[in-house]
Specification:
By secondary structure, the chain is an all-alpha fold. The chain folds into 2 domains: 1-38; 50-85, no CATH class. Helices cover 54% and strands 0% of the residues. Helix 3 (50-61) packs across helix 4 (71-85). The chain starts with 10 loop residues before the first helix and ends with a helix.
């Protein structure tokens, strides 16, 4: 007999995990795969390149040149993006 447990996660986290889970694997297999191969965390945990992000923002906004942002603004944007990615 298998001994089961329950964990609580937000709906957003479950949906993100569902997208990463292979259709052929069970949740047990998915969790084990993620445990065996955790993502690499760089620096303070935010692995978003602020310069590349600024360039992408300029591209998406139709700007003709690079977006000039103060370093604090770049960091704030990077932290917000990283927060959304970790959900």
């Amino acid at each position: 007999m298998t001994d089961y447990t329950t964990i609580r996660v937000s709906k957003d986290a479950k949906e993100a995990a569902q997208e990463s889970k292979h259709t052929t694997e069970t949740w047990n297999e998915y969790i084990q795969r993620c445990t065996d191969n955790p993502p690499e965390i760089e620096g303070d945990g935010c692995n978003v390149d602020a310069e590349k992000l600024a360039q992408k923002l300029a591209e998406l906004s139709g700007g003709s040149g690079p977006v000039e942002l103060e370093a604090t603004e770049r960091n704030k944007i990077a932290e917000e993006v990283a927060g959304r990615l970790s959900r």
